[in-house]
Amino acid sequence: MTRTEAYLALNLLPKIGPVRVRRLLEVFGTPERILIAKAREISQVDGFGPDLSETIANWETTVDLSRELRRIQEENLTLLTQEDTLYPKLLKEIHDPPLVLYVRGQLTERDHHGIAIVGSRRTTHYGSSMAKKLGFQIAYAGYTVISGLARGIDTAAHEGALASKGRTVAVIGAGLAKLYPPENQALADKIATQGAVVSEFPVDYPPDKQTFPMRNRIVSGWSCGVIVAEAPVRSGSLITAQQALEQGRAVYAVPGNVDRPSSHGCNKLIQEGAKLIMDGSEVLDDLMTLFPTQPMAPKMEAAKLDVVLEGDEEKIYTALGAGEAHINEITERSGLASSLVSAMLMRLEMKRLVKPLPGRFYTRLI
Length: 366
Known about the structure:
Shape: elongated
Largest sheet: 9 strands, mixed
Helix content: 40-55%
Strand content: 5-15%
Distance between the termini: 59 Å
Strand order of the largest sheet: 1-2-6-5-4-3-7-8-9
Number of strands: 12
């Protein structure tokens, strides 16, 4: 049995969990030794009564490890444990980091630098637009956008990251063969080509009320900061924000109209001390102040692009001219579609070549 398989077996055991496994590791040293320990040896560890000790000692009667390994192969998944270099560094620091992560797609070193974007499943056009914009900006700057693949804000955040050609990770509250919501299957497939879809649950584990809060702690724990883009007061994303605070992460919130219930949660977070943001650059600047050594790698990676104009960016930059120009003028001068002009201006803004002004005007910075 390999080290990874031993961790997998422990993860499959009911009512054990990462905190208890950590206690066992302090005594037995490795997951392999835990699995061959006698019940009487396990019962001497604090917090392990006779029933739990018997369950672990006789794990093969409860866990079908060979079936799970077969399902992992059939679904073309990989497994990460905390001993793997690609296991998210910040996630290791939380109180109860997952024993294993099932991964569809591929994680990279860049994914150690994540920023979460979360919010309501029932969102307004404003909320979706902000989540998509923030996802685009964060991913384009070199950070990985972390979210939960849920309807609404999560979906928009992932889509924004994908549109920027950056990276995004979806953490789901079910096994990877039980994707929820099912209508996001195509989105999940695309995410796996530009990042990964990740879960701590066995391949065929169905979603339930407990799995989503468990998922949320991974979203916040993976990230150096959590953005709540739109949320009512009873949104599950506020639980994610609370978990982020408990984990020592920065929390940001997008303000909304005070007479819209869909914004009450975000506005309340701001009242309670979350930083009000209106643009992704504010998050990036703040994180560079809070964690100057941590996000440096993606920030440097983005900086390499600052003097490079790609494709239609050069047309937009030329059309902008030397002074201030309205977006309609830029569109007319460039001859490009308005939607493409908006996207290119956002790219140029993230490269710190242009600056947006009130009234949809823009000006060059260089």
